[in-house]
Description:
This protein has 6 helices and no strands.
Amino acid sequence: MQPTLCALQQEWVTLQNQYDSYEKFACVIKLVCISLVATMLLLLAPNVFVAAFIFVLWLQEAIWKTFQARIEVRLLSIEKILSSPEEMAHANQIAMQFNSTWLETRPSMLGLLQEYATSALRPTVALHYLLLIVIVIFTDLAIFAQQI
């Protein structure tokens, strides 16, 4: 039982580090989007193009956060096993099964798209992109008002 405990602990540490890494890169995606949108608006790029760019990066972060959510499911499963002596008795076949476990529950293409959409609509993901779209709309309205 001790080798399994070490394997599960090692898997947890590895996955937790990866989970945190996904969070950092999601922040990088947001910062890149904000920077590029600001630059595009200053250069007077067409707002339709700016909005399309926002949607592309929003989708990219949604996909990224979906991958992170899969890691979270595995982390919670390992934590449950590590916290329960009864679960640990059966843990020797559970360690290092991240991909196998996900493959067994892999959704269809429609299910994957639904996962991406769900991730995109999470407040921590959507808020930044919605605010950028509002800024683009107000920029468009300001330009229109100047022309009148």
